Amino acid sequence: MLYPQRLGQFTREHADTVAALLCGLLLFLGWFALHLGALGFAFLLLPTAYVIGGYESAREGLTTLFKEKELDVDLLMIVAAIGAASLGLWRGEYHLIIDGAILILIFAISGALEGYAMQRTERSIRSLMSLTPDTARVLLQGKEEEIPISQLKVGDEIVVKPGELIPTDGIILSGYSTLNQAAITGESLPVEKTVGQEVFAGTLNGYGALQIKVHKPAQSSLIQRVIRLVEQAQTEAPPSQEFIDRFEKGYAKVIVVAGILLATLPPFLWGWDWETTIYRALTFLVVASPCALMAAIMPTLLSGIANGARQGILFKNGAQLEKIGKVRAIAFDKTGTLTTGQVQVFQVISASEYTQFDVLKAAASVESYSEHPIGKAIVQVAGDLDWIGAVQVQAIPGQGILGIAQEQQVIVGNAVFVQKYVTNLPEELREMAQSLEREGKTVVWVAKNPTPNPSPQAMRGAGFEVMGVIAIADEVRSQAAATITRLKELGVEQIVMLTGDNQETARSVAKAVGIDRVYAQLLPEDKLDVIRRLQQKYQTVAMVGDGINDAPALAQASVGIAMGISGSDVALETADIVLMADRLEKISVAMHLGRRSQSIVKQNIVVALGFIMLLLVGNFLGNINLPIGVIGHEGSTVLVTLSGLRLLK
């Protein structure tokens, strides 16, 4: 019983694709039947192919005609197809019925592709919604009770346990923890949060339990605003799409009006007989149908898409292949895009009497008990060194960690924390640490008390001495600088960086990769505003990102580019192009493909329009008959199709 259900579900979800496949199959069988001389069988199959493949186009064309009082290419193609079939029946030239069915098949395939593109917004919204839990743990009269998020009210107190997602925006009433906000704000390091600070829905709680007070309606949370922004940005039609729609409607009007005039006026103006007039009018509909014009674009774009896929570039929308070649400005997210998004030890600086290995081993001995990302980065680097885990380890939230390793007390933490145990920080190390912090690095200090088995009274004594400092940073991608240089060589006029991280870190990364303009400490709507301002000045703007916080900007940008490995689900769904291996240098490859596609499409359009004009003039002068018109029409279609396949190289 499952198979019929699955088949029915597949048919509903891919109705346009199924219709195109059935149309193609019936067309082939009908052609084969005509070839064998089985006219009855062919006349049963081919009309069925017309109905199945042309139903959606006919419905849309008639809807546009009656509701909007406009003619479009959908209706024109149906008229041309039916005209070809009628002419084929009238003159007994049944191969013309095949030509009409081919016209319908082409539009059925186009309709299926368009349907898939239109489903992107819905999938993006579903992906965003999955970032927040369906329920929240609310404190009611001292007891915890789970209720749906939609039932939360301002003033409710909720409990979030370690490792859980924050269900809604709120203010911390009690507790301390580190929150991973990278998906929302783009900050590369987890942020320490305590009483009185705001937390955002969709962020991941660390090791501490939190009691949070709801201070705004759930529908007003940051993540819900992101959802609305994505939906709004994706439904805004770009100017190029509006131009194409206007062109199609104008073209259809001209051809239909011309066809009607050609079917009625010649007997009165030039004395043609009615058979010749109708013959020329129907030939006109066949040769004027924009098959070659349509084939001038889609095969080229599909070839470019296939070429890109072989190189790890996934184009989700054929139109974006053209747009990427027109990009004049590019905005890069920082965390996870220009950087790897993984915090790592950047530098170890030891005091004169210690080595870097001494500093790492001492720090790893206590940090091995920490769940903090900084501690994990230190332990990872010190993994091959000979160190023993500390005992009596105690973490001081927001400050540092201490413990006893090999009978000596070790402390690791920020400067303020370490100064509680060390009388004076070495001036040389202090200057180096400040320099690293100005570059956006996070600096932790390492100190120890050489006295074996120190007494509690000695814990804050002068016996402690600084061993060194460890700088932590988010690693810049190795190919980032070369990519920026290549984009500038390709003529990109403006390259900017957008990030939720602090100004110092942002500037240091921008300097390392060669970006001059930086926008830091941005929320998702701020990134969206920057993209809109860039579009006002440069028109075609690309956005490269990987996080949920990038989704509105990716949707608003003329071309959204997501990182395939590190990118969040919603970023991958929202973007138009995905770099499957997170290789930034592929952006320039995509731009080259886009520019080649533009060039080939323009060449094909010139050829297609040239053939149409030539055939129209020949038809009007009576120098071509219908078979020659069909050969010219189909020949031009094949020619531009083969031309488009050049992008497969």
Topology:
Elements (H helix, E strand, L loop, with lengths): L1 H12 L1 H22 L2 H29 L5 H19 L3 H24 L1 H10 L5 E6 L2 E6 L8 E4 L9 E5 L2 E4 L1 H4 L5 E3 L4 E2 L4 E2 L4 E4 L8 H14 L3 H26 L1 H4 L4 H15 L2 H5 L2 H13 L2 E3 L2 H7 L4 E5 H5 E12 L5 H12 L5 H9 L9 E6 L3 E6 L2 E6 L1 H4 L8 H12 L3 E8 L15 E12 L3 H10 L4 E5 L4 H11 L3 E3 L4 H15 L2 E5 L5 H6 L2 E5 L5 H6 L2 E3 L6 H36 L4 H19 L5
Parallel strand pairs: 11-18, 11-20, 18-19, 20-21, 21-22
Antiparallel strand pairs: 1-2, 1-3, 3-9, 4-7, 4-9, 5-6, 5-8, 10-22, 12-17, 13-14, 14-15, 15-16, 16-17
Helix pairs in contact: 2-3, 2-5, 3-4, 3-5, 4-5, 4-11, 6-8, 9-11, 11-25, 11-26, 13-14, 13-25, 13-26, 14-25, 16-17, 25-26
Quick rundown:
Helix content is 54%, strand content 18%. With 649 residues, the chain is α+β, with helices and mostly antiparallel strands.
